[in-house]
C-alpha cells in the first residue's frame, strides 16, 4: 500500500475499513454498507459488536433497467434544480421591467437560496427518520408547486413567494439524490455515479443562462419556470415506480409526535430561519431604504446575533441528537471544506446574477445574447468540474485542486472587476473563462472531502452541512451585492447624471435603462457609464 493510501482519500473509499486521520471515526467498507436510516444508537451497537455485522447479508441493490430508470430520474431532477437556480439570472432584467421591481433583484435569488438553506438540515433529518422514497417525492411536489406559482406570478411579491416555495423543495431534492445513490449503488461504485451527478449540475449551469435568455426573448420569462413541470413529472414517475421503499430500521418503540419533533430538531429550524431572515433584511435595506444606524436595521442585526447564539447553544445541548453534531464540525477536512464553500460559491452566484445585467445594461445585449456570452464562464466551469472529477478519482487527491482554485479564481475575478463600457470581447471572454476554470477546479472538492473522511449516516449530515453553507453564502452575498449596487447607484446618478430621476431607473428596471433614455442620448451614454461603474462594485465584492 502506498503512503497516500494511509490517509483519507477518495481512493480509500470502498476499500477495507480504515480510520479517519482527524478523529478516528471508523470508515465503512464493503461488503457491508451501513444503512442511511439507522440511528446513532444502532451504529454504536454495530461498532461494539462487529460479529453481528459480519453475519448480515450484503444489501441487494437495484440492477439493470430498474437502476437505469432510477438514475435517469435523479439526473433529470438535478438538471431541473440546477436550471432553476440560475435560469432566472438572464430573465431578471425583463422581470424587473415588467414588474418595475429593480430593488427586488436580490430577492429573486435570495428567496430561493434562503429556504433551500434553512430547510436543508431539516430534510437531512427527515431522510433519516422516514423512507427516502416518500420524503424525496414530497420534496419534488413542493418544488413543482413553487414553479407553478412563479410561472403564474401577477407581481414581484408572488414571484418571490414562489421562489421561496421552490427553494424548500430543492433542499430535499439535493440531499435526496445523494441518499438515494447511497441506497441503490454499492459503496465502491458511488464515486462514479456522484461524478455523473456533478456533471449534470455543470450541464445545467451551462444551459441555464442561455436557455433563460432564449425563453425571455423568444417566448416569455415565465417559461423559465414552466419547463420544470414536464421534467419533474418524468422524475416523479420513475422514482414512484422503480425506487424500492427501504423500511425504517431504527427503534421499534412507540413513535409519538413529541419524539418525532425532538428527533427532527424542529426547534432548531424554527430558531435559525428567523435569524437568517433578520440578517437578510438588514443587508437588503441597510444603507438603501434605511440608514445603517436606523433602529430597524440595528434591531435586525441584534435579532440575528441573539438567535444564532441560541441556535449554537441548542445544538451543543442536544449532542448526538443535534442537527449538526459538534464532532462532525471538528473534523479538519469538513471544516476546511465548509469554509471553502462559503468563499467560493458566494462568488459564483454574484457573477451569475450581475454579469448578465452588465451585458444587457452596459453593452446593450439582449437577454438571449447575454446568456450566450456568460456561457463562456459556465462552460469552462462545467468542463473543468467533470475533468477534475476524473482526475480526483484516478489519483485519490482533492486538496491540490482546491489550492489551484483558490489561486486561479481570484485572478479571474480581478480581471472581471476591470470591466467597463469599452471592454473588448476578447478581454471579457478570457476573464470569464479564467473565472470558470477556477470555480470548476474546486466545485466538487468540499463534497469529496466530506465523503472521504466521514462514515455511515454522517456522510449525509456532512453533505447537508456543505450544501447548507453553499446556500447560506449565496443568499447573503446576493443581498449584499444588491445593497451595494443600489446604494452606490443613487450617489453616482446624483453626481454624474443629475437630470435623471433615480425613480425612473427603478421603474424601468435593468433592461429598460436605454429605452428610458431614448430622448436624451447624452444622458443615455452617461447612464451606461454609471451602470458600468456600479457593476464594478459587484465584481469588487467578489474580488
Could you characterize the architecture of this molecule?
The chain is mainly α. The chain folds into two domains: 354 residues, Up-down Bundle (Growth Hormone, Chain: A), CATH 1.20.1250; 57 residues. It is built from 23 helices and no strands. Helix 3 runs antiparallel to helix 7 and helix 5 runs antiparallel to helix 20. The protein is globular and about 65 Å long. It starts with 39 loop residues before the first helix and ends with a helix. The N terminus and C terminus are likely disordered.
In percent terms, what proportion of residues is strand?
under 5%
What low-confidence regions span 5 or more consecutive residues with pLDDT below 50?
A: 1-57, 249-254, 538-543
What is the CATH topology classification name of the largest domain? Growth Hormone, Chain: A
Total helical segments: 23
Strand element count: 0
Report the major sheet.
none
Output mean pLDDT. Answer: 72
Per CATH, the architecture of the largest domain is Up-down Bundle
Structural class: mainly alpha
The CATH class assignment of the largest domain is Mainly Alpha
Global geometry: globular
Distance between the termini: 42 Å
CATH superfamily of the largest domain: MFS general substrate transporter like domains
Radius of gyration: 24 Å
Percent of residues in helices comes to over 70%
Amino acid at each position: 500500500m502506498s503512503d497516500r493510501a494511509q490517509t483519507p482519500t477518495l481512493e480509500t473509499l470502498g476499500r477495507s475499513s480504515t480510520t479517519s486521520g482527524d478523529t478516528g471515526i471508523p470508515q465503512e467498507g464493503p461488503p457491508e454498507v451501513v444503512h442511511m436510516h439507522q440511528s446513532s444508537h444502532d451504529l454504536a451497537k454495530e461498532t461494539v459488536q462487529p460479529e453481528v455485522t459480519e453475519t448480515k447479508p450484503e444489501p441487494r441493490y437495484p440492477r439493470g433497467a430498474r437502476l437505469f430508470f432510477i438514475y435517469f430520474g435523479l439526473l433529470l431532477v438535478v438538471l431541473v434544480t440546477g436550471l432553476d437556480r440560475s435560469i432566472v439570472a438572464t430573465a431578471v432584467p425583463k422581470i424587473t421591467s415588467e414588474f418595475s421591481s429593480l430593488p427586488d433583484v436580490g430577492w429573486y435569488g435570495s428567496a430561493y437560496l434562503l429556504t433551500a438553506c434553512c430547510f436543508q438540515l431539516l430534510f437531512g433529518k427527515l431522510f433519516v427518520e422516514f423512507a427516502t422514497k416518500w420524503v424525496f417525492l414530497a420534496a419534488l411536489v413542493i418544488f413543482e408547486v413553487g414553479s407553478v406559482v412563479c410561472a403564474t406570478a401577477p407581481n414581484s411579491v408572488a414571484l418571490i413567494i414562489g421562489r421561496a416555495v421552490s427553494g424548500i423543495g430543492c433542499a430535499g431534492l439535493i440531499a435526496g439524490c445523494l441518499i438515494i445513490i447511497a441506497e441503490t449503488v454499492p459503496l465502491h461504485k458511488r464515486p462514479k455515479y456522484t461524478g455523473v451527478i456533478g456533471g449534470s449540475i455543470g450541464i445545467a449551469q451551462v444551459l441555464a443562462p442561455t436557455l433563460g435568455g432564449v425563453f425571455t426573448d423568444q417566448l416569455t420569462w415565465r417559461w423559465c419556470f414552466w419547463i420544470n413541470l414536464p421534467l419533474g413529472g418524468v422524475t416523479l414517475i420513475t422514482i414512484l415506480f422503480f425506487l424500492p421503499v427501504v423500511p425504517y430500521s431504527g427503534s421499534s418503540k412507540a413513535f409519538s409526535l413529541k419524539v418525532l419533533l425532538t428527533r427532527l430538531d424542529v426547534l432548531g429550524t424554527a430558531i435559525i430561519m428567523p435569524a437568517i431572515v433578520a440578517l437578510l433584511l438588514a443587508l437588503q435595506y441597510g444603507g438603501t431604504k434605511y440608514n445603517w444606524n436606523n433602529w430597524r436595521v440595528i434591531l435586525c442585526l441584534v435579532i440575528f446575533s441573539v438567535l444564532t447564539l441560541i441556535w449554537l447553544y441548542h445544538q451543543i445541548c442536544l449532542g448526538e441528537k443535534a442537527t449538526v453534531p459538534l464532532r462532525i464540525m471538528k473534523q479538519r477536512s469538513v471544516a476546511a471544506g465548509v469554509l471553502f464553500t462559503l468563499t467560493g460559491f458566494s462568488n459564483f452566484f454574484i457573477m451569475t446574477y450581475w454579469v448578465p445585467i452588465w451585458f444587457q445594461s452596459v453593452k446593450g445585449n439582449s437577454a438571449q445574447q447575454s446568456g450566450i456570452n456568460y456561457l463562456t464562464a459556465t462552460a469552462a466551469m462545467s468542463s473543468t468540474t467533470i475533468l477534475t472529477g476524473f482526475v480526483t478519482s484516478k489519483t485519490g487527491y482533492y486538496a491540490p485542486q482546491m489550492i489551484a482554485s483558490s489561486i486561479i479564481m481570484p485572478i479571474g475575478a480581478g480581471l472581471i472587476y476591470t470591466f467597463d463600457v469599452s471592454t473588448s470581447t476578447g478581454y471579457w471572454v478570457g476573464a470569464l473563462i479564467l473565472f470558470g476554470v477556477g470555480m470548476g477546479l474546486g466545485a466538487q472538492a468540499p463534497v469529496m472531502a466530506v465523503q472521504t473522511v466521514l462514515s455511515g449516516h454522517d456522510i449525509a449530515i456532512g453533505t447537508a452541512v456543505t450544501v447548507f453553507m453553499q446556500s447560506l453564502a449565496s443568499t447573503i452575498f446576493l443581498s449584499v451585492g444588491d445593497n451595494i449596487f443600489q446604494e452606490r447607484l443613487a450617489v453616482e446618478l446624483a453626481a454624474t447624471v443629475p437630470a435623471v430621476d433615480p425613480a425612473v431607473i427603478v421603474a424601468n428596471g435593468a433592461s429598460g435603462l436605454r429605452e428610458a433614455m431614448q430622448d436624451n442620448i447624452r444622458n443615455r451614454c452617461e447612464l451606461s457609464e454609471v451602470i458600468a461603474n456600479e457593476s464594478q462594485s459587484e465584481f469588487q465584492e467578489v474580488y
